[in-house]
Amino acid sequence: MTSSTKVFYSQTTQTESRPLMGTGLRRRRVMTKDGRSNVRMEHIADKRFLYLKDLWTTFIDMQWRYKLVLFSATFAGTWFAFGVVWYLVAVAHGDLLEFEPPANHTPCVMQVHTLTGAFLFSLESQTTIGYGFRYISEECPLAIVLLITQLVLTTIMEIFIT
I need a labelling partner for 11 at 20 to 30 A (CA). Which of 20, 89, 127, 133 fits? Predict the structure, then answer.
């Protein structure tokens, strides 16, 4: 049966039991007592796109293992993405050791000479665990703006992901 009408129904049946107070008919439950959804969607064209249309409900209905993967991947992805941006700042400013900076050169971010160092600086900045020996200097206004941008964007991301 391929009807284009949307059908949403509950699998529980209405019972005719009489409560002590109220209307007399029991309402169907949206969720069963053991936590499973009681709503079924049938005869809906392009059902896959409904999940993209309503991401919040999709996330609520998602299994826990996928939620944990999404949660972890979001943090690791932003750490890496901003790590790449920090590395590009170091390249643009000539801070890497292969550029052989002069002795009086002040780097934008101290002790960031590799992509790994940039990743660790990004992680330290975003998790606010405090800076060890990697920190930004006053030499580079771009680094200050980038740090503020990273902290604001990732805070907004944390609001929606947690």
Answer: 20
Q: Which two tokens stand for residue 79?
A: 């750490």
d(CA 150, CA 144) in angstroms, rounded, equals 10
51 shares a domain with 73: no
Read off the pLDDT of residues 108-135 as tens digits, 9 standing for 90 and up. 999 899 999 999 999 999 988 878 889 9
41 and 116 assigned to the same domain? no
In the DSSP assignment, the letter for residue 109 is B
Distances (CA, A) of 161 to 1, 56, 60, 65: 39, 10, 12, 15
Residue type, position 146, single letter: L
| 2 is a domain residue | no
What pLDDT shows up at residue 124?
92
